[in-house]
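Q: Could you fold this chain for me?
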Amino acid sequence: MSAVTALFESLAPTSISAPDEDLRAKIRTFITEAMPFAALDRRARSWQGFDAAFSRRLGEAGFLGLTLPPRYGGGGYGPFARFVVVEELLQAGAPVAAHWIADRQSAPLILNYGDEAQREFYLPRICAGQAFFCIGMSEPGSGSDLASVRTRAERMARGWRLNGQKIWTTNAAQSDYMIALVRTSGTAGDRQQGLSQFIIDLKTPGIVIRPIVDLTGDAHFAEVFFDNVELGDDALIGTEGEGWKQVTAELAFERSGPERIYSSIVLADAWIAHVARAGRNDRATSALVGRLTAEIATLRTMSIAVTALLAQGQSPVFEASLVKDLGTSFEQALPAWIGDDLAAHPEESVAPEFHRTVAYLSQIAPSFSLRGGTREILRGIIARGLGLR
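A: Sure. Below is the predicted structure, expressed as structure tokens.
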């Protein structure tokens, strides 16, 4: 079987089962009650919308930790249940940033690689929306070369001593914990060898967090400094030296799912409503509506297929990378398409809120292909999966 044939088979269309689909009406009702008057330009910040109270309400309603076992406070569902809930949250532009990383990847990582004490302590708090996590991967001067980690944890008589720096750490300033990939042996030249993961309480002495303001004026990124930070033995997650294998599995969760499709979707909905109010009925508008519909339908089908692989217990690194690359290309193109369309119809009145939304997403869209792995890194993974390198 060729690599291309295997790819088509692994991404074969599948459907979401009725029990999981039944969650859709419930989460829609929750969203309607929780955020009835949210402005369009605020909803466009869904990924960056940090609202701890909203996340706690999600936890209280049972919409966090859906795939975790009930004994840890989870819902006991499969990956499709989370797909349904996440899809509805993003389409509505709900503020998901507070719980996002913990629910999506920190919790599965702790479940799969943590010890029982770590599971019992962290997982119920994540499910309740009471523990927020950030990811400590990227470092200064490394670009997307994750294997060149220099931040180091040295074993002491008791515990570990951590020194180094992480950068582009999303929501570090508002998070409770970081799961960091650090070096515990060897040097940066050893690449994937000698790496380990640690759960770090961000209130620990020796940690300094500095927000990074982006082009839009938001500051969800941060740089984090570790200066002789003392960690207990219980901070190590999984096996020392197995960090690369663990983080690779974690990235499959980060790069899959509907979150790689819907970053600009509230703008698409608003534009369709705009052209309907304007009474447009021209071929160019119909063609753009058709293009948006066809692309989102195709990407959603592929994303559901990746979710099916997760449900089978697989780690679809290759397939998730493909969907993430195609999905972020669509997300980045959408604000440009809509901006060009509005510019081609200067006679139409554009609501200020709609205008602010177009401006915001046009400014933030370049970051879509950076978070979760740059396009260049992803295409390298795709090329290896196809046997091209």
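A (continued): The mean pLDDT is 90.
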